[in-house]
Amino acid sequence: MNSLVKTFAAAALIAVSTFAMATEGPGSKSSEANFNLSTADLALEHYVAVTTEGESAGVEQLFAEDFNQKIQSSNAHSYSREAVVKSLKKQKGEKLNCEVSTDIIEESADYMVAKVTMKFENFRKTDLVTLEREGNNWKVSKSINSYK
After folding, report:
1. Strand pairing category for 63-72 and 137-147
2. What's the rounded Cα separation, in Å, for the pair 148 and 78?
3. Each residue of 86-116: pLDDT tens digit?
4. Are strands 124-134 and 137-147 parallel, antiparallel or unpaired?
């Protein structure tokens, strides 16, 4: 009798775990994963991964609610947080063919300004990124891009 109870308990445990995995669906963990953005350096590293390596997990978490992006050119453009997040999600898995370097321009306890340079074969993109501490996490609040 005791072994019969153990067998039913094991079968129930297997069934519950199978149903739990099925409701999550494939890949759902990666899109909703929490990223460690507890330092400005970690947030900047994740920003570079999102913008140049096609990483799409944690995109929503990375950007401040009032984030905006400006593209400096002959016809300057400005993009909202929603537009940038949507665009980056579409680029999932696409790695840019460029050499990336980052330089910290200014840093304090609550903000950081960094310069991310992407050298492509025929041009260079410079991204001035502002990160701000929001509670216990760092978020990207502004991005200004220029091309040469």
Report:
1. parallel
2. 18
3. 999 988 888 999 999 999 999 999 999 999 9
4. antiparallel
Q: Give 80-91 pLDDT, tens digit per residue.
A: 999 999 999 988
Query: What is the per-residue pLDDT for 10?
Result: 40
pTM: 0.74
What are the C-alpha distances in Å from 126 to residues 2, 97, 136? Answer: 69, 15, 28
